[in-house]
Design a protein that fits this description.
Layout lengths: L2 H92 L2
Length: 96
């Protein structure tokens, strides 16, 4: 083997090693970029869910108020039925 063959072999090996190192760097850079993009996307989703959570809390409060009002209406309905019974008895005694 001559000197030229050795130099050509070393140049070839250096090219392969350089390509391998460059590929690893490129892959690492791509991985960091993908991780950064993923974190940004997750932060946007978290902010959206926080705003949705606020809307849901307001809706729950409205529903709780409606349930309370319904219970109060039911209580009034029972009282009205009791009063209606008393009025009917008075009316029957009076003869109306």
């Amino acid at each position: 083997m001559g000197v030229e063959a050795l130099i050509a072999a070393f140049v070839g090996l250096a090219g392969v090693a350089g390509g391998w190192i460059g590929g690893k760097r490129n892959a690492a850079t791509s991985a960091v970029s993908i991780a950064t993009d993923t974190v940004d996307l997750l932060q946007v989703q978290i902010e959206f869910l926080k705003s949705e959570n606020g809307d849901l809390k307001a809706r729950v409060e409205v529903l709780e108020a409606l349930v309370t009002q319904r219970a109060e209406v039911e209580a009034v309905k029972v009282e009205v039925q009791g009063v209606r019974g008393v009025v009917d008895r008075i009316a029957s005694k009076v003869g109306a």
